[in-house]
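It is time I had a proper look at our fold encoding. Can you supply me with one protein entry, sequence and fold together? It will help me judge whether the discrete encoding reads sensibly. Leave the record below and I will have a look:
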Amino acid sequence: MKLYLLLPVFFISLLANGQQPKVVRINASYDTTAIAELYNRVPIGLELVYSDSSRKQTTGFLRGDYRWNKLNITTSNGAIQQGVLTFNRPQLARDHYRITFSVSVANTAPIQTTLTLPHLLGIRFHHYADSLKRDIRYYLNVEGKFSSGKILPLDTTTLRFQTSAGRILGQDLLLDKNDTTKSVTVEAWYKPNKDMYLRSVIPVKQMPDPELAPPAKPSRLNHRPGF
């Protein structure tokens, strides 16, 4: 008798489990405000799409309620800790700026999803002044244009400089006070991709700056107390 009572419960349970929606697709995205163009850490989010067209988002960047500790994730580049991806930029370039995630939900078969991060398209000089002055540091401002549409300044972590005169101090060019050079040629290379190369000729200011005239003394002819 007990067996007859248990059989309907068993089949109802199987039917209920069979009708539960399953994850059929996972979409990955990243926080565009985190400047992944320059930094190797970026918050990411996963959207789980179910067989009944319902969706769930992970906590953190996407502000969903699906916790990261419910997911088993392996990645082709770097590691994920509580929704923050830390990646290797040279490897990212070799992989054409794509990172593949393999995600398992509740012991199901892994589902793969790919995230494409922004990359550099080109570099350019953006000089703050038309000429440099002797004995005054001249900042070598280089900007990068990225696939995300952003234009951002680059620094010596990704740039290498060479100059025909003067000295490179960090990202500054310094010409000695007694140097007679009339122009300086500056070259810049993007370290991860040496094919990205810049060359700029910067004139050296020849005329000295005019000395500031001393302030005029007030006239005493019309001076009256109280004015």
